[in-house]
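User: Please fill in residues for this 254-position structure.
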């Protein structure tokens, strides 16, 4: 056999390759079939699930959906838990407990625990493993296990247009304004004003917007250039290909 020719794959290797493709195709079918939408809610009966909203499969823990409203075009990642009430099968009254506005994104593995009112404003994006809760454990009685003491509950309000980083925790009573940025891993409680950046545990404001002087402290990176009007997706793809080509930094001519 010539040295430059690789040996043919064994029968066992070819079988593994076939099985791998079959498994991936079956899993893709399961994910598509198990996704929850307004047209195909499965076992879940939300108070409202908007047009274009999709809960990826597999879902996390979901209960109390009769008191949950999901806006239009929301993206709920895999293994996201959405709960209303302390436990399943409770009567929570006539009011909605958990509300997601239009275009909300909840990243994989996130939890939204609404034992009392939780509202997430439209176009708020959450990274993976974000934890939002209206309930916290009490430890007033030093003689009782913390887990057996009645929890404290306070409503949570997250304004529209926020960005909540990976692993952030939003605690009971938090009220975030419009277009707030929460850094990854931050633990947020209390009020956060509009157009603020918070970080740390506990979180504090590290950057904010001043109408006269702009961002303070000033941004360290230049603002992204907007895409000019009239540029087509094909032109953008062509520019991306040019950027990937190796060269000496000189722009090629026409």
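Assistant: Residues filled in for all 254 positions:
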């Amino acid at each position: 056999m010539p040295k430059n020719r690789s040996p043919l794959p064994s029968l066992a290797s070819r079988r593994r390759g076939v099985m791998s493709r079959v498994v991936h195709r079956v899993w893709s079918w399961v994910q598509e079939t198990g996704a929850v939408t307004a047209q195909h809610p499965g076992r879940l009966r939300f108070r409202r699930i908007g047009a274009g909203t999709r809960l990826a499969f597999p879902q996390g823990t979901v209960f109390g959906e009769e008191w949950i409203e999901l806006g239009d075009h929301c993206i709920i990642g895999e293994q996201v838990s959405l709960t209303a009430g302390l436990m399943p099968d409770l009567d929570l009254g006539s009011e909605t407990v958990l509300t997601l506005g239009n275009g909300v994104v909840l990243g994989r593995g996130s939890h939204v625990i609404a034992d009392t009112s939780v509202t997430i404003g439209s176009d708020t994006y959450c990274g993976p493993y974000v934890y939002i809760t209206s309930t916290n454990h009490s430890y007033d009685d030093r003689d009782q296990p913390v887990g057996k003491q009645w929890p404290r509950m306070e409503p949570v309000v997250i304004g529209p247009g926020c960005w909540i980083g990976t692993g952030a925790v939003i605690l009971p009573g938090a009220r975030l304004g419009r277009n707030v940025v929460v850094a990854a891993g931050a633990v947020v409680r209390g009020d956060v004003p509009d157009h603020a950046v918070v970080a740390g545990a506990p979180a504090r404001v590290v950057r904010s917007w001043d109408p006269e002087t702009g961002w303070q402290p000033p941004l360290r990176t230049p603002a992204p250039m907007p895409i000019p009007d009239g540029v087509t997706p094909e032109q953008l793809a062509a520019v991306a290909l040019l950027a990937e080509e190796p060269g000496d930094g000189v722009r090629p001519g026409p």
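For context: The chain has two helices and 24 strands.
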